[in-house]
UniProtKB/TrEMBL annotation:
Molecular function terms from GO: ATP binding; P-type potassium transmembrane transporter activity
Known role: Part of the high-affinity ATP-driven potassium transport (or Kdp) system, which catalyzes the hydrolysis of ATP coupled with the electrogenic transport of potassium into the cytoplasm. This subunit acts as a catalytic chaperone that increases the ATP-binding affinity of the ATP-hydrolyzing subunit KdpB by the formation of a transient KdpB/KdpC/ATP ternary complex.
Protein name as annotated: Potassium-transporting ATPase KdpC subunit
Biological source species: Pseudomonas helleri
Pfam families cross-referenced by the UniProt entry: KdpC (PF02669)
Annotated compartments: Cell membrane
Annotated family: Belongs to the KdpC family.
HAMAP family linked: KdpC
Top-level taxonomic group: Bacteria
Subunit field text: The system is composed of three essential subunits: KdpA, KdpB and KdpC.
Membrane topology: Single-pass membrane protein
Gene Ontology CC entries for this record: plasma membrane
Length: 185
């Protein structure tokens, strides 16, 4: 019995050390060397050096002076990150989308972009399509007292083209640039 038990325990300890200690430390070390910004959470810093957020996680912005992200099923809390799990046929989802659409609707601008009405799979997607950002442009420019052309230029500068998929705008980075624009005036 001990002739079978000792090798099994030795192998279990060895594999635990390799997969539980050596491998995670090696991957962490390689990530810190090759991709230090991403490995540390893609943090965004303000003027005074304080962390304002992460480029990977959406934040809630309210008020007319900010571009708003897509809704979050988990109230932008990373612990509760998840989709709402409401099926397209669920009346609660239809009611929420309809209420959001009437709240966000701007006369003369057509229908509210779907990205401003629906949550992402994680509930924390920081990106919006440029069309959803431009839908909010007139409101933000008017609230900040700057020309729509100036805000449009800022939006254009923040359009990212991912390796796969359509162009997107990171709402947090755009709002940070918007704050700096007003601070510079």
């Amino acid at each position: 019995m001990t002739s079978l038990l000792r090798p099994a325990l030795s192998l279990m300890l060895l594999m635990t050390a390799i997969t539980g200690v050596v491998y995670p430390l090696a991957v962490t070390g390689i990530a810190q060397l090759a991709f230090p910004e991403q490995a540390n959470g893609s943090l965004i810093y303000g003027r005074e050096g304080q962390v304002q957020g992460s480029a990977l996680i959406a934040q809630d912005f309210s008020g007319d002076t900010w571009f708003h992200p897509r809704p979050s099923a988990g109230a932008f809390a990373t612990v509760a990150s998840a989709a709402s799990n409401l099926a397209p046929s669920n009346p609660a989802l239809a009611k929420r989308v309809k209420a959001s659409a009437s709240e966000l609707a701007v006369a003369g601008q057509g229908p509210v972009p779907l990205a401003l009405l629906t949550t992402s799979g994680s509930g924390l997607d920081p990106h919006l399509p440029p069309e959803a950002i431009r839908y909010q442009l007139a409101r933000v420019a008017a609230a900040r007292g700057v020309s729509e052309k100036t805000v449009e230029q800022l939006v254009t500068q923040h359009i990212e083209q991912p390796l796969v998929g359509p162009p997107v705008v990171n709402v947090l980075l755009l709002n940070q640039a918007l704050a700096q624009l007003n601070a510079g005036q």
